[in-house]
Amino acid sequence: MVASLYGVKQAKKAIWIFLEQEGGKLEGVSLELLDKGRQMADNANWSLVGLLIGKDVSEIADEAFSYGADVVVLADDPLLDVFTVDAYTQVTYDAIMEHKPSVFLLGATPNGRDLAGRLAVRVRTGLNADCTNLNLDKKRGILVSEVTGFGGGIAALIEMQNHRPQMATVRPGVFPPGEPDKKRKGKVIKLPIKLEADTIKTKVVERVVGEGVDLTQVPALVVGGRGIEGDFGLMRELAGLIGGDVGATRPPVDDGYIERERQIGQTGVVCRPKVSINCGVSGAFHFVVGVQESDIVISINTDQEAPIFDFTDYCIVGDVFEIIPALTAALSSVKELAHG
Ligand SMILES: Cc1cc2nc3c(=O)[nH]c(=O)nc-3n(C[C@H](O)[C@H](O)[C@H](O)COP(=O)(O)OP(=O)(O)OC[C@H]3O[C@@H](n4cnc5c(N)ncnc54)[C@H](O)[C@@H]3O)c2cc1C
User: Fold this and answer.
1) Mind listing the pLDDT tens digit for each residue in 112-151?
2) Within this chain, do residues 268 and 300 fall inside the same structural domain, yes or no?
C-alpha cells in the first residue's frame, strides 16, 4: 500500500472540518460536524480547526467559533469565489500539507464529496464515505468511522492505522446541530494563496439554483411507502394540517410518484423531525436510519408484524386508505373548532 504524504508521527493532534459555505452562509452539515468534532476534540484534548475557503468570507469565522472551532484557517481569494474542485483541492492540499492535521472531516454534499475524493488521492490517504457515526479513540489517536455494510445489515467500524489525515464524510442530518455560544472566540490563520487563474480548468458558465426541499429541517414528516400506492395527495393533505412536509421510501420514488429529493433513508436524507408518520412502510433498515431520530414515530401498516413497528412509538394496525382520511377529517374539524 502506498504511504500517505505524512504519517502518524508528523500528524498534529487536530480535527479539521471543511467549512462549506454558499454565498457566505455555512452549510448545516458543517455546523453539525463542528459540534461532533468539538465533542471528540474535548474528549481527546485535541484542537478543532475549521477550513474556510471562499471570497470575502472572513466574517463566517465567528459563526464557526460559536459552534466550537478553536481556529479557522482562512483561504480568501477572488479565485475561490465559487466552488471549483481543482482550485479548492489545491488550496485544501496546501493547507493540509502545511498544518498536517490528524483528522479531516467533510459533509457528504455534492461539493464535499467531490473535494474529499480528489483530496484523498492527492495526499495518498483513505476516505471513509457516508459515515453513520464517528469516534476518536483518544489513547491511540485513531478515528473510528462507522459505516453500514452488506445492505445495511451490519455496522462496520473502520480504522486507519498509518495513513494521515484520517478522512471521512458524513451526510447532512446524521449528527444534530449544536447550540451556538456567541461568546466563544478563536484564532484566524490566513493561508497564503498560491493559485493562478489559468491553472483552474473548471469554468462556471451558469449558476442554476433548484427549488429543492430540505426535509432535514422540517418539524413534521408524513412518509408514504409502497403501501400508499402512489397516493401522495393523501399524504400532502395530512402534512399540511400538521405543518409538515411529505417524504417517501425508495419504491414510490423509483416508480416516479414523487421527486427523488424526498426519499428518506440511507441513500436519501436523514431527518430528525419532532414527529414522523410512516404510512404503508415496511421498515427496512435502509429506510429506518432516516427517521429513527424523530422525537415521536407513528406508523400505520396493515401487517402487525411489520418491522417498522419495532421502531415506532404509536403503532396503528390498519389500512392507510381508511386511517389517513379519518385522521385528516378529525384534524380538520379540530382546526375549524379552534378558529371558531
Ligand atoms: C443499498 C440500498 C440502499 C437503499 N436505500 C434506501 C433508502 O434510502 N430509503 C428507502 O426507503 N429504501 C432504501 N432501500 C430499499 C429498502 O431496502 C426497502 O426495499 C424499501 O425501504 C421498502 O419500501 P417500502 O417499505 O415502501 O415497501 P415495502 O417493503 O414493499 O413495504 C410496503 C408496506 O406497506 C404495507 N401496506 C400495504 N398496503 C397497505 C395499506 N393499504 N395500508 C397500510 N399498510 C399497507 C405492507 O404491509 C408493507 O409492510 C435501499 C436498498 C438498498 C439495497
Assistant:
1) 999 999 999 999 999 999 998 999 999 999 999 999 876 6
2) yes
Give distance in angstroms: CA of 270 to centre of ligand 1: 16
How many domains does the chain divide into?
2
To 5 degrees, how large is the angle CA 55–CA 212–CA 210?
Answer: 60
Domain of 49, CATH number, reads: 3.40.50.620
CATH assignment of the domain containing 284: 3.40.50.1220
- In this predicted structure, what is the pLDDT of residue 340? 66
Nearest C-alpha to atom 31 of ligand 1 is from which residue?
Answer: 282
Clarify whether residues 16 and 101 are in a common domain. Answer: yes
Question: Ligand 1 site: residues with CB under 6 angstroms?
Answer: 151, 225-227, 249-251, 263-268, 280-282, 284, 286-287, 300-303, 306, 319-321
The residue to which cell 433513508 is assigned: 265
Distance 280 CA to ligand 1 centre (A): 8
Sign of CA dihedral 109, 36, 159, 8: positive
Residue 296 CA to residue 5 CA, distance in Å, equals 47
